[in-house]
Amino acid sequence: MKILVDLFTASLGKLEWYDVFLRIFVAVLAGGFIGNERGKHGSAAGLRTHILVCIGACISSLTSIFGSLNLGYTGDIYRIAAQVISGIGFLGAGMIIVKNTSMITGLTTAAGLWTTGAIGIAIGFGFYVGAIIATLFCVFTAAFLTRFERQRKMSVNLYAEISEPKKAGEVFDKVHKISEDDVLIEVVPAKSGIDGNLGFFITIANRDDFQELREQIESMEAVSFVIPE
Fold this sequence. Notes:
By secondary structure, this protein is an alpha+beta fold. The protein has 9 helices and 6 strands, in the order H-H-H-H-H-E-E-H-H-E-H-E-E-H-E.
């Protein structure tokens, strides 16, 4: 037990190889723990991505510490870590997608990557307690709050086409009336390729009577078909 405590409190004078190994190993565990949970939810950034982000952030902090303690460099040792926090944004931007229904997805994944980078920095500086607590809360958020949010805010997406574009306004008014919930309608070119058809996406809150609602829309005059998206 004393050996383990000594490892976690090492590098008070110099950064030794075993302390470097321990911190990177903890970064792998933290990143993997978060990434594994995100992967279960079908996130584009899963196990490997989160591990690499956490290792990269960790080694950035370790490089700063090594330069100060082992090489005697002077200056602000937090500058490299600060650039990691801002630089990780390019990965987050790659995770954010705007769907053809004008709905933005990937914000949770982007935020998770940014937080994983911050956790890696904390591990690199030896702030194990903060890193472990943050990791546990990240996993809790991904595992439990995601399910709660999906149950509360899950939406249903439909695609439909109108054979008579002049009646589009009438159709849209009827959709708003029968949905009884907040509904988003986006007009797009017809996917079917049928001349004269007008396509549109419908996004509504999750409903138990989803199939019935779909049939009601499909039965409207001028509506050619309705399919789930």
